Amino acid sequence: MQVLSDVVATHSFGRQLALLLPAGSILLLGGDLGAGKTCLVQGLAAGLGIEEPITSPTFALAQHYPLLKNGAAAGGLVHLDLYRLELAAAADELFAQEEEEARALGALLAVEWPERLSRPPAGCWQIQLSLSDPANPAAGRLVELRSPS
User: Fold this and answer.
1) Taking the complete model, does pTM exceed 0.85, yes or no?
2) Rounded to whole angstroms, how far apart are CA atoms 112 and 82?
3) Angstrom distance (rounded) from CA 91 to CA 113
4) CA-to-CA separations, 10 to 66, 89, 116, 137, in angstroms, rounded
5) pLDDT in tens, 91-109
């Protein structure tokens, strides 16, 4: 477990993680509201070389940020947020669609609220974020990274 002191540290952790994850990885991001999941994804995007603003896809459910090489998609990021999906079947269906799209692009798939799925997909990286002091969000975050089992 690692302590991330602030937003800058969370963003930096995401940037560093982007350089470590194999192309086409799936990253499941757990944590309560305000734990820093979207901030970490913003860092992932920066680490991948994505320059456009990254926002939470809570209402859109999924955002695609392809990287282009010679005019063709070559990697990038697919950012999925399952928070609004209450039925596991709906979350499973959307996840399957976005996983297929991410694989076709060779993109990293970052999934917020993976607990909405009926079961965790196999072979995924997992991050759990939590506030180090829930009474004081400025106190930083705890992050635990688990590699695929």
Assistant:
1) yes
2) 6
3) 10
4) 23, 32, 24, 13
5) 999 999 999 999 988 999 9
What domains can be seen in the chain, in order of their start residue?
7-128 (3.40.50.300)
pLDDT digits (tens, 9 = 90+) for 25-84: 999 999 988 888 999 999 999 999 998 888 876 677 899 988 866 565 568 999 999 998
87: tokens are 């039925």
The string of DSSP codes covering the chain is: -EEE-SHHHHHHHHHHHHHHSPTT-EEEEE--TTSSHHHHHHHHHHHHT--S-----TTTSEEEEEEEETTEEEEEEEEEE-TT--SHHHHHHHHHHHHHHHHHHT-EEEEE-GGGSSSPPTT-EEEEEEESSTT-GGG-EEEEEE---
